[in-house]
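Final report, Chapter 2: Outcomes

The project's central promise was a pipeline that accepts a single protein chain and returns its three-dimensional structure in a standardized token representation, suitable for archiving and comparison. That pipeline is now operational. To close this chapter, we reproduce one record exactly as it appears in the project archive, with the input sequence first and the structure output second.
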Amino acid sequence: MTEPRLPVGSHDLPVSPALDAFMRTSWAEAPLPAGSRVAAHALTPARRARVAARFPGERLVVPAGSPSARPLHADSRFRPHTAYAWLTGLTDEDQAGHVLVLEPDGDARHEAVLYVRPGSPRSSQEFHHAHGEFWVGRRPGLAETAALTGIRCEHRAAWDKLLTATQPPTRVLTGVDPSIDAWLGDARRLPALRCAPAGLDSVIDELRLVKDSWEQGQLQRAVDATTAGFEDVVRSLPQAVADPRGERRVEGVFGLRARLEGHGPGFPTVAAAGDHACVLRRTRNDGPLERGRLLLLDAGVATDSLYTADITRTIPLSGTFTPVQRSVYELVLAAQDAGIAALRPGARFHDFHEAAMHVIAEGLHEWGVLAMPAEEALAPGNGFHRRYTLCGSGHMLGMDVHDCARARPGIYPDGVLETGQVLTVGPGLYLRPDDETLPRSLRGTGVRIEDDLVITRDGARLMSSALPRTPDGVEAWMAGLLDS
């Protein structure tokens, strides 16, 4: 008789009937601690109600997503889709394949139902097969998940029951879980399923634009942890400078802090030294750190609730800016100061970028880099200053580093700022080493200064003020950390 075998991802070891039977017995109960709740338990019902109110009489389907597999069946670390996490409070890796459904109840209201894969029973073969509890850890049961979230739970296998009765108009957050997209696109199901137009993703992102006090607190925790990570990096610089791949050491040092204090880095860390600092989003991080050059570090810790910081500092690896480096840094700082000064409720989102770019263009003209005056360089038909800065000067911040990006353009980015919104202001200059329009003394100098701010009733509060921004402050900060 042929013995059953585990999947290749489980090292393809045979399982005898005797071992299978033995694995099903004599396991103690391991319930979750009494009273366990997701951190946002008190906030998610109102979030779901706000979304549902925009779609009366419609079913709303929000998947958590599916894990991406690497070669040889090694799964990457899973992170639930932001909309799912915001509406349920569930942020752990065990949410892969789960689905939130908001079902219309016929009275202009909706009932939330979670379709989940509960923990595998110890008496079943699933317990010791790939993706079972023995391999990947414990998953809460249906009742436990309901207690964690306050949402009625059904087994994921019951998903097809949705199709057995009269179907309401249905909106699905597509592009998140291929199995849900396939279900939606299956021609055999369409006669029973009336698909409503898209727009669910935009509505959710627009509702997430203003952060409540709890969310602001989570973002402040992320900022504070990121500040500690930047301090760790500065303390590690003597070892990093001696390492042929010092950029990677910087990335690793920051990543350790991110995993110790939160879910991990909120986005791929940019640790770019020397000429690499002139590349906007270089995440390869495999170069050396050379004394006398600059290190541009763009990084952020994401909390366990998935709210992420996004801060950039550009620091001199020698501990002191050269005159040229200081000149470039001071121009970028002046641009950031102008951008921050433009933040207030009712201001256009684009105002802070335009204020920063006016300072940049004026400075480039004064240096002789731009032959024309700032106003001419900034004219919509020109934009010549962008050769040296190119990208925008900031973005919304929250559970995604570029938060709420699926909002309708008229709301964001073409709308106005509101109290409670959190965003970054981070202009930069990227004076590439191969740019023949630049004096040789400026080539190979990249500087970005990026901070996180929350819009207040009369302006904005700098959440990342614990990290110095001025060149003198940066030098003193580094000296204090390296001497400690």
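Archive annotation: The first strand starts at residue 59 and ends at 63.
This record, like all others produced under the grant, will remain available to the consortium after the project formally closes.
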